[in-house]
Predict the structure.
Amino acid sequence: MKYLVIFALSLGLSACASTTPEKLKGAEHYFSEGQKAMGKNRCIEASEQFQRLVSNFPGSQRVAEAQFMLAEAYFCSEDWVNAAFEYQRIVDIYPSSEWVTESQFKIGEAYFRQLRRAELDQKETFEALAAFRYFIEDHPDSPRVEDARQRIVDCRNLLAKKQYEGGHLYHRQGHLEAAKITYEEVLRSYPDTDWYWTTLFRMGEIARTQDDVDLAVRYWKEVLQNSEDDELIKDVQKQLSNLDKSAD
């Protein structure tokens, strides 16, 4: 019985020892360990090290850089949600730091990496669009501006595709008026995207179905004159050829 008591006490002491909080080391230690982990692409380990510094040493001269590196570590591990959040903290808390410009771009990039297929919800697409527009507005001289502009083009193409696919579904189902309304929104809102010309081609098909040949021809000729899509141009030429044959 005596030995059982001693054994139980030893277990209790071991348990207590195992729950003793880790003694904090200095800010430089955690920053150095985080950098080492990032260098070896151990992104989660790096995020843990930088989080210790940010949480426990708010007055450190390293804290702003560590906050940026924390966001970078999340980005490295493809944790886009936390990455965007931590980059935003740089912008909000350290607005005069040297990491603001890159952080603001990476906010958009973190949302961009979450983009979904056109048929799904596009919340992240709108978030990315807003972030990249703010970036260009706030940092017009940054070398990242052209990248941001291309991301905006990609986002708008995705939104145009979603709108187009909605119209095309109505079109295939024979709901021509609903299709026209949806297609017209593509033409009105996304004239700078690749989907503009495909939508114009479909509008020509509807016009032809509704026996408005002149309108159909106007749509199709506009596509011929301006589109750079070889397959689409072939489709237009086929439709115009069919009109000529029917006229004969």
In short: The chain has two domains: 28-157, 160-247.
